[in-house]
Specification:
single chain, mainly alpha, 434 Repressor (Amino-terminal Domain), 5 helices, 71% helix, elongated
Length: 92
């Protein structure tokens, strides 16, 4: 376990609020990375997606960096611009 991971675990034990917000924030971060990686694998720029969604490049950047606020309809449009579909799954 890295020093960073040890620090995070200590903070989680000391503060339930930190633990809760860290987990939800980290999931949003992971989702943001997934969006960016899918776009890069498809060889598509943020500008191209912005044109397809009739928005600005800065809006696509916000989607890729702050995915916790993304609407499902926007996510569907983003996926379609990459020639992809989304699949939502609930897990325990």
């Amino acid at each position: 376990m890295s020093e960073l991971e040890k620090y995070i675990e200590r903070r989680k034990r000391k503060s339930p609020k930190f633990a809760k917000t860290f987990e939800s924030g980290y999931r949003a971060f992971e989702f943001s990375v997934m969006l960016r990686q899918a776009r890069e694998r498809a060889g598509v720029t943020q500008e191209t997606i912005a044109r397809k969604l009739r928005t600005k490049k800065s809006a696509i950047s916000r989607i890729e960096n702050h995915a916790e606020d993304i609407r499902l309809s926007t996510l569907e449009k983003y996926a379609n611009a990459l020639g992809m579909r989304i699949r939502v799954q609930l897990t325990e």
